[in-house]
Structure formats: C-alpha cells, structure tokens
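Incident log, structure service

09:12 report received: a user says their structure output differs between two submissions of the same chain.
09:20 pulled the input from the user's history:
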Amino acid sequence: MAQEITIDMTIEEILSTYPQKSQKIAQALQNAGLNCVGCHASTWETLEMGVLGHGMTQDNLQNLVTLLNAILNEKVDSSTITITKRAAEKYRSILKSEGKGEYGLRFMEKAGGCSGFEYTLDYSEKALENDSTYHSEGLEIHIPKEIEERLLGSEIDYIDGLQGAGFKISNPNVKSSCSCGTSHNY
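09:34 re-ran on a clean worker, output below:
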C-alpha cells in the first residue's frame, strides 16, 4: 500500500484519498463515535482531534487507525459482485415480509447526489435480457450490462447502528465521493 491512514489526516482527506473505501471508512468512524462524518460536519478535523475531542483515549485512537488501515488492506475480487452474509440475510427477511419469495436483487446506479451517481437496490423477479447475473450468498444479483464494468468488485453490506440502518456499497472503481459517502463518481 502506497499510503496509510495516520492520526494527522483530516476526515475529509481520509475520505477523498480513499473514495473506493469511503462507505466502509465512514461507517467505521461512526461506529467509533465520530459522528462528524457527513456533508455539513467537521471534516476539517484531524483524526486525532476528532477522537480526543470526543473524550476518547490514545488507545482508542490507535485502535481506530489500525481498523481503518485494515479496511484499506482488504482484498477485492474485481471480477464479481458480492453481498455479505449480513446483507443477504436482511434482504431475505425483506423478501419474506413483502411476499417476494425467491426474487433476486437488482443493483444499479442513477444520476444523483453531489458527486454524480447514487446506488439503487431493488427487487428483481428475474434477470432482464440485457442483465448480467452474479451469485453471492445464495442470491442472484442482476446488473445492467451497460454499467457492469463500473460496478465490478463492489460489495453490498448491511449496517444497523445508532446512526441509521441500510445497505452500503463499497466499490473499488470509485474515484471520488462526497464527504457523506452517499454519492460517487468515476
């Protein structure tokens, strides 16, 4: 790895340097108690200022830096699309409650947000003629072929925490994202 996250990097610098991991990094920061991640937040603070300013210790700071660098070092399979076990279980639960049985998951993106694109997830009864189909955790994931190249390597996860719940996407092809991590560009 060419660069690692250090305590003197600002939140904005961390998210803009590693946009392909911004969703996971933002979630890790929020889980650690740094709720300043977002469009109207103190993204100018260094990681150290944020941790110590929230009453945490140097040990908390070092543990967070270790976690963030572990996220950066996670290997990505850029030949497929995956969904985590947690996300697959949540999706199956939603399918059951909606009476949609064995539907797959439609994974797409649309123009939107402050960086250009936002991800969309929806029910997919069957793959369309112009779809590619991926299999992960026992689910079919349907993707329009015209955007497939941009989405390859993506991981769909599900987060449930005090700051909200929802499906989160990590995409190694992203070159920039907004500071809240909800929109992106290539």
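09:41 both user submissions now match this output. Likely a transient worker issue. Closing.
09:42 reviewer note: The chain has six helices and nine strands. The helical segments are 11-17, 22-31, 47-53, 58-73, 85-98, 148-151.
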